[in-house]
Amino acid sequence: MSSALLMSGGLDSTALLYWLRPELAITVDYGQLAASGEIRSSKKICTKLGVRHKIISANCRAIGTGIMSGNPASDFAAKAEWWPFRNQLLVTLACMLCIDLGVDRVLIGSVRTDAEYMDGRKEFVEKLSALVSSQEGGIKVEAPAIGMTTEELIKSSGVPPPILALSHSCLRSEYGCGECRGYMK
Fold first, then answer.
1. Exposed, middle or buried: residue 152 (CB in 10 Å: 0-12, 13-18, 19+)?
2. How many whole angstroms separate alpha carbon 82 and alpha carbon 65?
3. CA 89/CA 91 separation, integer angstroms
4. What region, left, alpha or beta, does residue 117 occupy, with left being phi > 0 and alpha being psi -120 to 50 degrees?
5. pLDDT in tens, 134-173
6. Which residues contact 96 (CB under 8 A, 6 or more apart)?
7. Residue 65 neighbours by CB under 8 Å, 6+ apart
8. Of the candidates 162, 161, 124, which has an alpha carbon nearest to the alpha carbon of residue 141?
9. How many CA atoms are closer than 13 Å to the CA of 28, on its beta-carbon side?
10. What is the pTM of this model?
11. Taking a C-beta distance cutoff of 8 angstroms, is the pair 90, 128 a contact?
């Protein structure tokens, strides 16, 4: 069984990478303003932990909304950083890469507090996994920390502070702004 982790370089994906040690980490540059910071952090963390790292680029900024894209927020947005169908997009892109690599599990870093978004809920992950696994490759989607808070995940993972310090949680900048919701989980 081979697994890949969607790696944003943030606290949650960093803790999951340390804890679960998947064979592959995938960072997606989908046009988010913080992409270069996420990629830089993810590369450093993967190098330190000896995990193979791949980057997918698919610029979707023109159809993104809110502070992560630099575009006005959607009328449907509950939060300024909401980007419609983002997790579905990221998982689909990751699975497209994984099918030829023989990966059969894609792990995502959703935690309990992500349930305020439709695509951060356990039911969404289960439905997405059922959809993805019914297609070529039979890949499963899992959110191993979906019942935990970020703090609980960090404690459970045992990730050391020097590794965690390499993470990038800013939602709108290559370097941490210290003001966006990425810091207020």
1. middle
2. 7
3. 6
4. beta
5. 998 899 999 999 999 999 999 999 999 999 999 988 666 6
6. none
7. 71, 72, 73, 74, 77, 82, 83, 84
8. 124
9. 23
10. 0.90
11. no
And the tokens for 153? 């995940």
What pLDDT, in 10s, does the model give residues 13-35?
A: 999 999 999 999 999 998 898 89
- Tokens 């995938």 locate to 26
Q: What is the 3-state secondary structure (H, E, C) of the chain?
A: CCEEEECCCCHHHHHHHHHHCCCEEEEEECCCCCHHHHHHHHHHHHHHHCCEEEEEECCCHHHCCCCCCCCCCCCCCCCCCCCCCHHHHHHHHHHHHHHHHCCCEEECCCCHHHHHCHHHCHHHHHHHHHHHHCCHHHCEEECCCCCCCHHHHHHHHCCCHHHHCCCCCCCCCCCCCCCCHHHCC
